[in-house]
Model the fold of this input.
Amino acid sequence: MARRAYHFQQSASSSTPFHECRTYYLKSGFNTFDGQFEFDPDNIGASSVSVTIDTTSIDSNHAERDKHIRSGDFLDVGEYGQASFESTNVTDNGDGSMTITGDLTLHGQTKPIEIDAELVGHGEDPWGNYRAGFMGNTRLELEDFGIPTMSPATYVDMELHVEGIRQ
Done:
């Protein structure tokens, strides 16, 4: 099978939740994002991903908390309304697991990150589309992106759950 382009599917199975570590885990997510990935199950190392995230779409299921996360105390979405990720390399670790290396732009700063990811599955859906799904995780140190820390919260753990429809 040749490497094919997939467009991210905005659905309940596609999300970018993160955990903010304080004395508990706060599970939040970004509801609006767009992008695509290229994927060949026979050559995972040739894969790539590109995504843009609307940071104003942060959703912690608590309106006042969301307002604070969007403020200059944290994401400052008035100044930095988008985040983006562009892969630079995908390493096939075997058994469907991979390491995705790339550049994340967040809060106006671009830094390299690694995402530990795995293929959930791929194939035709009941409506005749061909889909592929992945999940992954990475830790982001807030100071690396110029985001003020709210002690003891110095990082967020990102969980990635994505599904794409082959174009």
